[in-house]
Task: inverse folding
């Protein structure tokens, strides 16, 4: 991996490791407004208690994320993705990330089924939005609006925006996945504030963060395959990527 790249005709050089996540490494660069992100081949479940090296996963997630971030940009949805550096690395806008996971559910699955005994894949009307506190130590507990406000994690106006922005992302992603015969079941987003305090979509948009189900076969094409030990997770990821790439041609 080279440690420098061009962005907007300027050389950006990778610096010190800022943060080691479960599936990504985030580095500072010599430009304080830009971060260098490396997608790892690591898969984790149960908030990091289970992990495994899965060759090729980093580049698949990176490629899928790039296509989806660029799709959102074309739809006028601002996000942190700036440019690709290599098959596994990208430059992102440096943001102050909120400690909140924004989950959107179009169909019942995962914890929505285990919590409420809902029928798996039941269509959810209205679409369900939930917030969770990003904390491995506490197993990402659910948070309601007043808990978020009382802890000072976001303001009321930011909460209103988070809900509206996540709904816009849901619409844009549901549409693109529908075009490739995939149902977007649910997904998790993260947001950060830029230097002016504006909320911008961050993190990644990959099958690590979303449930994707083939409309014809009902097969899972996402990290559930890893969570459930149901085979090679990269088969589904490769399928998602090739359908997205074909759409772009
Ligand atoms: P659930 O709450 O059913 O486990 O997850 C709902 C959706 O959000 C799924 O698409 C899941 O992948 C995503 N999600 C929820 N929490 C996390 C998390 O901590 N990490 C990742 N990568 N995805 C999450």
Result:
């Amino acid at each position: 991996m080279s440690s420098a790249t061009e962005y907007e005709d300027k050389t950006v050089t990778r610096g010190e490791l800022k943060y080691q996540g479960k599936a990504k490494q985030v580095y500072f660069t010599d430009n304080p407004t830009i971060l260098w992100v490396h997608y790892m081949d690591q898969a984790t479940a149960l908030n990091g208690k289970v992990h495994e090296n899965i060759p090729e996963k980093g580049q698949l997630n990176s490629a899928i994320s790039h296509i989806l971030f660029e799709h959102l940009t074309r739809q006028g949805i601002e996000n942190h993705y700036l440019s690709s550096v290599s098959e596994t690395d990208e430059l992102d806008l440096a943001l102050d990330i909120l400690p909140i996971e924004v989950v959107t559910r179009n169909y019942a699955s995962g914890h929505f089924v285990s919590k409420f005994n809902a029928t798996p894949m039941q269509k959810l009307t209205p679409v369900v939005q939930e917030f969770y506190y990003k904390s491995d130590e506490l197993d990402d507990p659910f948070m309601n609006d007043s808990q978020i406000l009382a802890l000072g994690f976001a303001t009321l106006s930011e909460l209103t925006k988070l809900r509206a922005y996540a709904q816009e992302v849901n619409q844009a992603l549901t549409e693109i996945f529908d075009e490739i015969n995939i149902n977007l079941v649910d997904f998790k987003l993260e947001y950060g504030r830029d230097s002016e305090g504006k909320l911008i979509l961050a993190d990644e948009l990959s099958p690590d963060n979303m449930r994707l189900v083939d409309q014809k076969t009902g097969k899972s094409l996402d990290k559930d395959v890893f969570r459930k030990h149901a085979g090679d997770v990269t088969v589904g990821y490769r399928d998602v990527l090739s359908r997205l790439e074909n759409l772009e041609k």
